[in-house]
Design a protein that fits this description.
about 325 residues; OB fold (Dihydrolipoamide Acetyltransferase, E2P); 6-stranded mixed sheet; about 35% strand; Rossmann fold; ATP binding; 10 helices; 18 strands; 5-stranded antiparallel sheet
């Protein structure tokens, strides 16, 4: 394993940021630390980097006990949300900076910087200042600078959080392609579920300083360990005492025979979101959301007021989660 976190805890005053966290992060993989704000994911990333010290526990990087090592001896590259660029240096000099302070030969620096600028598609902007780049270009420059010293591990703290939705989507697709080319062990923090599901090989879900579940995007989405993971990764609706994905709910027009697995109600709202149609059905003191394709919706000729029956598709019962009634009442 590339990174081993063992029984790490961290407090800030009375606030428990991490509570006895243990996780193994595989070598060469792209791992997302996903969770709500204040859940502990950035604190864990900073402890891996050596920018924060744990109150207890151990950090091991590539077989080396790094728990008490300073950041410069951990061989990690760190990319912050707001770039942290040297404003008075050109793009070329920003990327070269880490190599220059390590006193690498000039020919090696030149070759490495040119290689990286080509890799992040910024070679034509080498002489510009960071202020002359777009947000997406500055973030690509920050990634190139972090990769310049050939780190064992690349750490990204909400790398695309300051960018607009379109640029963020473009950059996360680019990051996935970049990772597949350079194969450096990469850990990135995000609270964006779609970003984690789209980019990561593995996701570590963190909430209130504890790990809720670790697994591939498919495992977490289809087989969530608990109510929190189910709700946090993707849309959910409640049908009876089960949480289920809206696209896994079947809907049929008309009343049927009494069936405990079904809820009979009326369509109370229809919303189109791009290629999806979201249908809300109210019945049995519940509002159930069903997601349909446009063609499915048109074929059923649904209208507000239509009487329908809804049930969980039989093949997805294993992927549902029972509602935690105590937690539901608490919220």
């Amino acid at each position: 394993m590339s990174i081993e976190i063992a029984n790490v805890s961290k407090r800030f005053g009375n606030f428990v940021a991490l509570d006895d966290v243990s996780v193994s992060i595989p070598s060469g993989r792209l791992t997302a630390l996903l969770g709500p704000s204040g859940g502990g994911k950035s604190t864990l990333l900073r402890i891996i980097a050596g920018l924060e010290s744990a109150d207890s526990g151990r950090v091991e990087i590539e077989g080396l006990d790094a728990t008490n090592l300073p950041p410069q001896r951990r061989n990690v590259g760190f990319v912050f949300q707001h770039y942290a660029a040297f404003k008075h240096l050109s793009v070329w000099r920003n990327v070269a900076f880490g190599l220059e302070i390590r006193r690498r030969p000039k020919a090696e620096i030149r070759s490495r910087v040119e290689e990286l600028l080509a890799l992040v598609h910024l070679e034509q902007f080498a002489d510009r200042l960071p202020s002359q780049l777009s947000g997406g270009q500055r973030q690509r420059m920050a990634l190139a600078r972090a990769l310049a010293v050939q780190p064992t591990v690349l750490l990204l703290d909400e790398p695309f959080g300051a960018l607009d939705a379109k640029v963020r989507k473009e950059l996360r697709e680019w990051l996935r392609r970049l990772h597949d080319e350079v194969h450096v062990t990469t850990v990135f923090v995000t609270h964006d579920q779609e970003e984690a599901l789209e980019v990561a090989d593995e996701i570590v879900v963190i909430n209130e300083g504890r790990i809720e579940q670790i697994g591939s995007p498919d495992e977490l989405y289809d087989r969530p360990a608990n109510d929190f993971v189910m709700r946090f990764l993707g849309p959910v609706t409640q049908l009876g005492d089960r949480l289920v994905r809206p696209h896994d709910v079947q809907i049929q027009v008309g009343e049927g025979k009494e069936d405990p697995a079904e809820v009979t109600g009326r369509v109370t709202r229809v919303t189109r979101v791009g290629f999806e149609i979201r249908v809300e059905v109210t019945g049995n003191d519940q509002v159930v959301t069903v997601t349909l394709t446009r063609n499915e919706f048109l074929a059923m000729d649904l209208q507000v007021g239509t009487t329908v029956r809804v049930r969980i598709a039989p093949e997805v019962h294993a992927g549902t989660v029972a509602v935690d009634q105590a937690q539901l009442l608490a919220t």
